[in-house]
Amino acid sequence: MRHNSQLGEEMTIKEKIPVKTQKGAALIPERLKTLNSKEYFAVLATGDGSQPYTSLIAYALTHDMKKIIFATPRNTRKYTNIIHSANVALLIDSRSKRKKNLLETEAITIIGIAKPVKKGKTWNELAKTFLMKHPDLEEFIKSPATALMAVDITRCVHVGRFQTVSVLDYSN
Known about the structure:
- The protein is of the alpha+beta class.
- The protein is 22% helix and 41% strand.
């Protein structure tokens, strides 16, 4: 809703969907933190060398925002794909909260390197972070058949307002 100052009245003006990509200046760490607090699932993309594969996962972001944590059974395609090629991408988005307004929907693609976490101090710390967000998955992550995975984030690409793109490289 926008105000029409010439007529002194409120009227609905439908914003147009942009047709060109624009460079953005989103504060990606802030957007990551917000999405992490509101969204419980991400789409994980892996590959087997010849085909891409996607999976819906429960995830958590570490406090320093440098890692994404998730758990998976070891006997899955996603686990096998990661063992063969650790390069992954995750998509976290707000589409379920913005059903009909594409301009208010945002998405972050997180690119990184995934690896299973070995039991020990690091596993305990990451499991604690994951379980703070997903307490109902405690039995699942403690199963010997489940691998706790950590993705070291190398790049984030934020898209907002349909085609406004911001990039954060972690290597810089």
